[in-house]
Design goal:
Largest sheet: none
Distance between the termini: 65 Å
CATH architecture of one domain: Up-down Bundle
Mean pLDDT: 82
Helix content: 55-70%
CATH class of one domain: Mainly Alpha
Radius of gyration: 23 Å
Oligomer: single chain
Length: about 160
């Protein structure tokens, strides 16, 4: 039979007493469905900086998701939807990762992935516009943003 050792440090005794105390359950405020958009801004009250690339890529990913929900499901479009959501949201995810890079070499490598994902997004937007002509106007707007992001990441990588 194993004998339990009593807490010896002040920290251990404190943690034990906190664990045994009864706490009130956390009550979260009611959230409206339209309020599920998350961002780093102050509840939408402060404007993001005009050159906040992290926010811009996040908004781009959200726009891609909304666009993909408009694409009619079917065997030919399902693959396009899957690819478009993947690469369109990866642009922002990889940029966030690049901001946490441990070296310049690591940063350049991850920015290179952002560049590739933006280029891939342009390709799948083109394929989607071909597949669904009624979505050409919206696809064109997203294509322009993907192109701008591609150019931005190319410039960052060159520096």
């Amino acid at each position: 039979m194993m004998k339990h050792q009593a807490p010896t440090s002040k920290l251990q005794r404190s943690a034990k007493s906190q664990a045994s105390s009864v706490s009130e359950p956390v009550i979260y405020p009611e959230v409206r469905p339209e309020a599920w958009v998350l961002s780093e801004t102050n509840g939408g009250t402060s404007e993001p900086h005009a050159f906040d690339l992290e926010e811009r890529t996040a908004l781009f990913g959200e726009a891609i998701i909304r666009f993909c929900k408009k694409i009619p499901r079917g065997p030919d479009n399902d693959r396009l939807i899957h690819q478009l959501v993947g690469c369109g949201t990866s642009v922002g995810a990889n940029y966030c990762e690049a901001n946490e890079a441990v070296s310049k070499k690591d940063f350049k490598c991850i920015i290179g992935r952002c560049l590739k994902e933006a280029k891939e997004t342009k390709f799948f937007l083109r394929m989607t516009a071909t597949s669904e002509p009624q979505l050409v106007d919206e696809a064109r707007k997203l294509y322009r943003e993907a192109k701008e992001l591609h150019l931005i990441f190319a410039a960052i990588k060159r520096k």
